[in-house]
Each structure stands twice: as structure tokens, then as C-alpha cells.
UniProtKB/TrEMBL annotation:
Upper lineage: Eukaryota, Metazoa, Chordata, Craniata, Vertebrata
Protein name as annotated: Myelin and lymphocyte protein
Family matches, as PANTHER family: MARVEL-CONTAINING POTENTIAL LIPID RAFT-ASSOCIATED PROTEIN (PTHR22776), MYELIN AND LYMPHOCYTE PROTEIN (PTHR22776:SF12)
Subcellular location: Membrane
Parts forming coiled coils: none
BP GO annotations: myelination
GO cellular component, one term: membrane
Length: 146
């Protein structure tokens, strides 16, 4: 039990441990996906609605997760598994959203004046997907070692 408690950082230590320092780029790039998609014409609504849901959901839950880690609530033995599960689900959601966004962007090629914003959103979505996968893998390694 003592090793599982020490495996999860809290307070300012999250800014020095590798999987947890990824919170910051997840915020930045996830927020960029959200704002870039929101600043363009959301057409077709269905796939881009999913992209908006995923980016907003992950942004809000990552913010909550960040505050849980900062305050030290994450010190029970269940948190390493929850950390892996959350980041794996977020990575899967972002992968599906990034693929849908890329497909919509390819079909809109040359039809829209803000095509560069769509391309930037696709790139940021794949970067966020990669960040969440890395976070999930490193959290899984931490969970296994605790």
C-alpha cells in the first residue's frame, strides 16, 4: 500500500514527473482543437459535433483530473488504474475525432476560405491523440510498478 501511495504525485510534484507533466500540452493542444473547430463553419454537423464533444469533454475532464492531482486527492490505490483508464479512453476518443476531422477536411479541400484552420485543427487533434496515448502508456507503466 505504501508503494501505491508514493507512486502518484500530488501538488507541485506533478510538474516534475513525466506522465503528469503532459497535462500542460494536453491543455494547450486540446484547447487549440476546440477553438479551431469552433472558429470554422461546423458543416457537416454530425462528425464535427463529435469532434467538438470530444475536445470539450477531454478538456474539461483533464482540467478536473489536473486539480485532483494538484490537491492530492489521488493518493488511494485506485487512482493509478483510473489514470490509465481515463487517458486510454481519451486517446481513443481523440483518435476517432481526429480521423473524422481529417476526413471532413479532405472533402472540404478548396471549398472553404478557412481551409488552413481546418488543417491546423487536424494536426492539433493528432498531436493531442499522441499526447494522450503517451500519457496512458506511461501511466500504465507507473501502475504496473506500484
Amino acid at each position: 500500500m505504501a508503494s501505491s501511495v508514493s507512486a502518484m504525485p500530488s501538488g507541485t510534484k506533478i510538474f516534475t514527473t513525466m506522465p503528469d507533466i503532459l497535462f500542460i500540452p494536453e491543455f494547450v493542444f486540446g484547447g487549440l482543437v476546440w477553438t479551431l473547430v469552433a472558429s470554422t463553419l461546423v458543416d457537416p454537423r454530425n462528425p464535427l459535433g463529435w469532434v467538438m464533444f470530444v475536445s470539450l469533454f477531454c478538456f474539461l475532464i483533464t482540467t478536473l483530473w489536473f486539480f485532483i492531482f494538484i490537491t492530492g486527492i489521488n493518493q488511494s490505490s485506485i487512482w493509478p488504474g483510473l489514470d490509465v483508464g481515463y487517458h486510454a479512453i481519451s486517446a481513443f476518443f481523440y483518435l476517432s475525432a481526429a480521423v473524422l476531422l481529417a476526413n471532413v477536411t479532405i472533402t472540404k479541400q478548396g471549398q472553404d476560405k478557412v481551409y488552413q484552420l481546418d488543417i491546423a485543427a487536424v494536426v492539433m487533434a493528432f498531436i493531442v491523440t499522441l499526447l494522450y496515448w503517451i500519457h496512458a502508456i506511461l501511466s500504465a507503466l507507473r501502475w504496473k510498478s506500484s
